[in-house]
Amino acid sequence: MRVLVKELRELDIFIIKYRYWMATLEEDIYKQSVWLVKAFSSDNITLDYSIESLKEIDLFFEQNSAVPGIAKQNGKLSQNLGPVLFSIGAYVGDTIIKALPGSIWITDDKDPEGEITARIKLPTGTIIWPMQRVINRFKNGDEDSIYPYGFLVVNEISKEDYWDKAKDIQKNFK
Length: 174
Prior knowledge:
- It is built from eight helices and five strands, in the order H-H-H-E-E-H-E-H-E-E-H-H-H.
- By secondary structure, it is mainly α.
- The protein has one domain.
- Strands 3-4-5 form a three-stranded antiparallel sheet, with no helix packed on it. The protein has a two-stranded antiparallel ribbon with strand order 1-2.
- It starts with a helix and ends with a helix.
């Protein structure tokens, strides 16, 4: 009995340590977005979280895809495809969030497909899925381009009385 209690305590300590060191999906999104900016910077490409910078993402796909859904041999998508697409999705989502204050990531750390189903709730209540858009960009090519997606999302929201709502939201955070 004492051995079992000791093992259970050790397991509890392990779980506590694991939870402490385990990042949430939202933290991973942030880290990977920052990582992508640094990775592009090492190739002298500037990602500055502007909607215009999403053109660089589309160019990256063009340069690193042989055909839609197939990475160029020895290209930057030829290894670690899933993590790279996740990082790009994180950047795309963070870019839209920065362009539309009051937007938030919605994640579910318990969802085994949480990296794919992470979504953003815009100030208007509209939900978008940047991770899925990035996956579709890779699979379908330029018919699912990233820049027009980000541009249209931001401009459609901007046409509404969004800016008044955003000012109200920001007042609540002060």
